[in-house]
Every structure is written in structure tokens, then in C-alpha cells.
Amino acid sequence: MKKACFLVFCIALLCCSCTHKSQKPSEIESLGRINSLTIIINDQLWNGEIGDSLRKKFAAPVDGLPQEEPLFTINQYPIKGLDGSKTNNRNIIIVKLEEKNNFEIIPDEFATPQNAVHISGTTVAEILAHIETNSEALIKMLKKTEIEANQKNIDKSLLNDKKIRKKFKIALHLPSTYKYVLNKPNFLWLKKEILSGNNSILIYKVPFKMILKNNNLTNNIVKMRDSIGALYIHSKAKKSRMITETSYAPYFFIRCWITKELIKQKGLGI
């Protein structure tokens, strides 16, 4: 009887093991921090021209930030890592020097959602050509995936935006880690504490004439923003106020047809 029970137990373990191994990629949830990228490539290639090209394209500094931050945080593993848990990461680039010249994107190859990019060539030059030709489109695809992943995380714990909707007639999906710190007529200040300081979101409403009073939209926006900083945002130092970083011009675009018409009437260009 004991032998029979033992046999049944072994068969059960075997069945569980087989079930686990046959798990489909669609059943495995992808992993990875936001804006992280796993590159699976042998050390010899990573420490040479190919690695330099990948770092230049995918770890380039992001423009407009007060401190230098890479476009993606790269984690590199040798080809043997292809058989491990690293294949479950959300964004993977697999690079091989072999008798095959190929560039291929396989969505959800090992997990879901996932971008699995395969780059191979018979020479270093062929691999470098694939990276140069396709990096711009790849970066666009990876950014889209990361935005969707971040939005999914935010939706798990949303801030109550009742004050925003009541004051500005708009809805914003913000994580509950943001807190209201200042509520004034036509102005809201939300802040989230982080290890290096804090992140702030300022929401305010101003008359169009502050932006459309002449043909220099960029200067008008900077002056308007600085006036808000002088009014509400101060530090511990006396007579200090928040001003706009002068190293970068603000980027803006038109989302409302009424605004387009107003600008057309004023003879202003974007």
C-alpha cells in the first residue's frame, strides 16, 4: 500500500512539472522596471563596437532634465542568460554573431506584454547596420510599451482628482502618491516625495491674452510660468522664487481648434 501511494505521489509531481514546462508565453506576465531594457549579448561583443553602439542609442541622456538620466536603464547578460528568467523581461534585445544576417521583432515571445528583438549577423558590420537602421523605430516602440505599463501601474492606485475636475473641468489619472499641498483660485499644486527630493505638478488657468499678446509665444509662456512661480512657489531662502530653466525652450502643441483659430487671427506661428 505504501509503495502504491508513493507511486501516485511521484506521478502527481511529474504531471505538475510537465504542466509548468508547457506554460504558454501568454500565461507568463512580463517583468521589469519602467524604462528598463535587457540586452542579451556575449561579453566580447558588448565590450566592443556593438556594445558601444547599443549604449549610444538606448542609454543616451534624455534632453531637458536637470540631471543626466539615460533613455533606458540597460541590463546586459551573456547569451546563456537566454535560458533563464531574464527572458521574462518586458523589453529584450538579443544580439548574436552567427551565420545568419537577420533583424526580427517577435511580440510576446517569452511573456506578455513583451518586445523581443533579435539581431544577428555574420560580421560586426552587419549587426551595426541593423542597429543603425532600426534603432529609431525600436526606441519609439519601447517608449510606447513603457508608457502603457506605467499607466497600468498608476491605475492600480489613483489619486482622487475631484478638486481638479471641479476647478478646471478636466480629469487626470495621477498616482495616489501625489498629495495636494496648495489650493488657490485657478491654481493647484500637487507633490510627491522621492528619495532625491520631490516631484511637483502645477495646474493653473490664465487668460489667453497672457500668451497671445504678441508674436513671441515662447517668451510669453516663459514669462507667464515665471509669474506663477513668483506668486506661489518659494524656497527657504529670502526673496527666492521658481523660474523656468533657460537652457531649454518650452515645447508646446495645439490640441484645441478654438486655440488654432485664435492664433490664426493673431497672425502667430508655432
- Would you tell me the structural class of the helices and strands? alpha/beta
- The helix/strand series, from N terminus to C terminus, equals HEHHEEEEHHEEEHHH
Number of helices: 8
Separation of the first and last Cα atoms = 85 Å
**What integer is the average pLDDT?**
84
Number of strands: 8
Overall 3D geometry? elongated
Main beta sheet, described?
Answer: 5 strands, mixed
Proportion in β-strands? 15-25%
Helix amount? 25-40%
Strand order of the largest sheet: 2-1-3-5-4
Short synopsis of the structure:
38% of the residues lie in helices and 19% in strands. It has helices spanning 2-21, 43-46, 49-58, 124-155, 162-168, 209-212, 217-232, 257-266, and strands at 36-40, 73-77, 91-97, 102-107, 115-121, 179-184, 187-194, 197-204.
What does this structure look like?
The chain is α/β, with parallel strands linked by helices. A hairpin with a 2-residue loop joins strand 7 and strand 8. Helix 3 packs parallel to helix 4.
